[in-house]
Amino acid sequence: MRSSDRASGFRPHRVVVLALDGLLPFELGIPHRIFERPKDAWGRHLYEVITCSIRPPGPVQTDADFAIQVGHGPEALATADTVVVPASYELGPVFDEGVLTDELAAALAHIRPGTRLAAICTGGYVLAAAGYLDGRPATTHWAHAEHFQRTFPRVKVDADVLFIDDGDVLTSAGVAAGIDLCLHIVRRDHGTAVANNVARSTVVPPHRDGGQAQYIHRPMPDPQLATTTAARAWALGRLHEPIQLRDMAEQESMSVRTFTRRFREEVGVSPGQWLTQQRVERARHLLESSDLSVDQVARDAGFGTAQSMRQHLQAALGVTPTAYRRTFRVTAKAA
Q1: Residues 6+ apart with CB under 8 A from 307
Q2: For the stretch 148-187, what's the b/e string if a residue is b when 16 or more beta carbons lie within 10 angstroms of its beta carbon?
């Protein structure tokens, strides 16, 4: 941190990434790539990212043919505002029996109460073995979901989503879903505009539709059959209008039943759930980037009334439209 920042009282949010033996280099790099991009209006980094291991500074073996040199030991976890645990292929008893090693338990003991925790892919096994996920919803890579549930029966596993935000504990599905998770954290902390700028500079979509269901291997459909892409594009251009399921099905010349089945296969959620997601994102954008009244935002986003939008934003984000605008309007202007 620069001395001028210290003098002004500014302190970036510290993200500490826990590097475990057998880690996947791609996943280790995700938090650094995403969190080191956001800046405020004065060009100051909003996050500070460091990497630590469960041992004193030194090499940590990856699942590839090289090791990485980590400059911080487990005591760095005590300085974290957010701890991120990427996946590892060498979790040993954590994966096999659902219990921590003494060395890992001692490292996690450094984490302060109230620290936000996030896991990418099988990094969720570490949080579950430590008891952080007891009674909570969580996800992991779809290929490990059944094993994860058997190993940790007190966790409410949902294998259909890309990530789960349960407040101070967040988990993601496999590999690239870690990007979705980290972008979501940026969006939650600083708003859609900042997160979209990060996504744009990283050349990834700011928000992916659907969940893991679209990535699970299934028999390939007949390539001559229509997809639902055109219907989604048609709906996105008319979010402010009432949209019926039969209207979307007609865009693909399908029956409602066939369209609904095909849509869920391709996107991972129902057409109605997808429409609500898109309208919530539209409302967030308008609340951050415009001076429209809440009533007008509700109409333009397709919710019809402010009360309806309030209910949907409360369910999706846990805040009212007014509170959301108050929190993120300044950040969006700076971005």
Answers
A1: none
A2: bbebbeebbbbbbbbbbbeeebbbbbbbbbbbbbbbbbbb
CA-CA distance, 292 to 294, in Å (whole number)? 6
State both tokens at 11: 């302190």
DSSP secondary structure code for residue 53 in this structure: -
In angstroms, the CA 253 to CA 246 distance is 10
Token couple for 114: 């109230």
**Rounded to whole angstroms, how far apart are CA atoms 221 and 211?**
19
Reported in sequence order, the residue ranges of the chain that DSSP labels E, i.e. its strands, are 13-18, 47-52, 58-61, 67-70, 82-85, 116-119, 137-138, 156-157, 163-165, 169-172
Q: Cα(47)–Cα(36) distance, rounded to whole angstroms?
A: 6
Tokens 């500014």 belong to 10
**At which residue do the structure tokens 């690239």 appear?**
176
What pairing do the DSSP bridges indicate for beta strands 116-119 and 47-52? Answer: unpaired
Q: By the 8 A CB rule, do 107 and 18 touch?
A: yes
pTM of the model: 0.72
Name the burial class of residue 71, with classes exposed (0-12), middle (13-18) and buried (19+) by CB atoms within 10 angstroms of its CB.
Answer: exposed
Q: Tokens 């980037």 correspond to what residue?
A: 289
User: Cα(242)–Cα(259) distance, rounded to whole angstroms?
Assistant: 18
Region of 189 (left: φ > 0; alpha: ψ -120 to 50; beta: rest) is alpha
Per-residue pLDDT tens digits for 206-236: 766 555 544 444 444 444 455 788 899 899 9
115: its two tokens: 């620290």
